[in-house]
Amino acid sequence: MFQTQISDHELWSSIRKDDEAAFNELFKRYWIPLYKTAYQYLKDKESSEEVVHDVFLNIWGRRGDLYILTFSGYMLTAIRYQIYNRMRAAKLPLVYTDDSMVLYHASENNLGEHKIEQQELQQEIFGFLGNLPKRCQEIFCMSRMEQLSNQEIALRLGISKRTVENQITAALKYLRDSLKHLACV
Question: pTM of the prediction?
Fold first, then answer.
């Protein structure tokens, strides 16, 4: 019996409606590639499993708030972020105090505030992306979120590589102009 695979977008819609079976399917699809990516950087089985687990916990916990255009791109970005945080945390210097050992990093005053600022920036970027023509949005998302090369995008969409380059350049220029106010902060 032939069974068609449900798209990531359809699964995500179900997950947003608290469908645990859809979440389990998404977990099955992405666990191995995420684990391989994590292991490539961390070189530790347990840490890699923890990082992947953290990504999926975060997705489930924020399923009502997340706006994901391309799931594969989002997953790659999420695992890289978790890997980066894990590697950065491992390099924190130890500072001894009178009572106990405390991890300290001078540049991290408030990690929660940093995450909120990052989420707000991401929402603002997605808002500005929504103002671009649909084809420009599509090309930009394929390039930056799915990590496809300009040649791969051109082949997939049946357009020239130069057209892809022009669309990405236009999107980046628009985003730079739109986010100029952030440079002054």
Answer: 0.48
